[in-house]
Amino acid sequence: MVDAFADQDVIRRLLNESKTWAFVGLGDNPDREVYTQARLLQERGKRIIPVHPAAREVLGERGYASLAEVPDVADVDVVGVYRRAEHAGQAVDEAIAAGAKAVWLPLQVIDEAAARRAKDAGLDVVMNRCPAVEWALRR
């Protein structure tokens, strides 16, 4: 069922057409995968918004403690959920409540129930895929 959340057209559209990504779990530790992915997308012209309880500035962007605190969260194209799978559902529910357009759960972050809730709420959903790998595959 995980492959149901790996539609190549959705992946391509999110990578090509999105402008703003909120990264749940993005702190100021450059050794974390979320930092690497956020930096990669930022280098490719995306605006990134760090969402982390510490709410620090990361990669030159102001951080927020939660999605609810992000101004104009409805303008966020994709919410990347870089939390352990057991916490992903809460972040997905916050993305739904905030009016996000899409959620992206990276490799090994699998919560099919949360993905289904997001899909049922009208969000695009990508799960168990890496933005960097998918970006490389599109070329």
UniProtKB/TrEMBL annotation:
Q: Which domain of life is it from?
A: Bacteria
Give the source lineage, highest ranks first.
Answer: Bacteria, Bacillati, Actinomycetota, Actinomycetes, Streptosporangiales
Q: What is this protein called?
A: CoA-binding protein
Q: Residues of the signal sequence?
A: none
Q: Which species does the entry assign this protein to? A: Actinomadura soli
InterPro entries named in the record: CoA-bd, NAD(P)-bd_dom_sf
- Domain named CoA-binding is located at 14-109
- Which Pfam families does its entry note? CoA_binding_2 (PF13380)
Q: Where are the transmembrane segments?
A: none
